Amino acid sequence: MYAFTFERPATTADAAKLAAGGAKVLAGGQTLLASMKLRLSNPEALADLGGIKELVGIRQEGSALVIGAMTCHADVAASAVVQAAIPALADLAAHIGDKQVRAMGTLGGSVANNDPAACYPSAVLALGATVQTTKRKIAADDFFQGMFATALEDGELITAISFPVPKRAAYMKFKQPASRFALVGVFVAQTDGGVRVAVTGAGNGVFRHPGLEVALGKSFTPEAAAAVKIDATDLNSDIHASAAYRANLISVQAQRAVAKALG
């Protein structure tokens, strides 16, 4: 690693000041520290959010579940509140990476990083969640903007994410065996506003699939999902899987997610 200064702010306001001054924010560090070790990232200053208690916690507010940005994956997975309100979200968190990653990785860090194969972005998008920051509230449909790109401005920090509780939902992931990221992951949610389907791992970022949403809005069944043709044109093709293979996985995982949601 290169030399850098290290700050551990005690409040969100202090962290925001450091970020506005150019410090790189450190959440769980699962991506940033690895990048620094490989000298792919060279921040001159780090602001560790680990000491900010107000950024941790899970609570239900009316018909929504609000989770603090620094809440780790393991706590989301083990939360009785999450398991009761949105079991699909607890299940998703329980299968991110390995135990070490789940113990250190955070909801806010994952969403802010927006890795194109990360699991959490699919839940945020499919559930129509709201990303709360130090400056504003951002709807999920406006937040994700492509590979590692989001609507966050310089110095803007995620403080919490509010997930509306769906009627039913499920997430199915086909893992890349080495990284345990999603080769393809599909999150299906039946909400008061209709069916939302988000796909991760298949393109240059998380995206909704209109064809599956329309079909499942008419008939929330695996058969309806199976009848939707998945276009492979804009999907990833690499050493792990071709675009056609990923298209097939989207269909298969969507069918499995619907079946799982139906119980």
TrEMBL record:
Residues 1-168 form the FAD-binding PCMH-type domain. Pfam families: FAD_binding_5. The keyword Oxidoreductase applies. Keywords: FAD, Flavoprotein, Oxidoreductase. One of its GO terms (molecular function) is FAD binding. PROSITE patterns: FAD_PCMH (PS51387). InterPro entries: CO_DH_flav_C, CO_DH_flav_C_dom_sf, Diverse_Substr_Oxidored, FAD-bd_PCMH, FAD-bd_PCMH-like_sf, FAD-bd_PCMH_sub1, FAD-bd_PCMH_sub2, Mopterin_DH_FAD-bd. This is FAD binding domain-containing protein. It comes from Variovorax terrae.
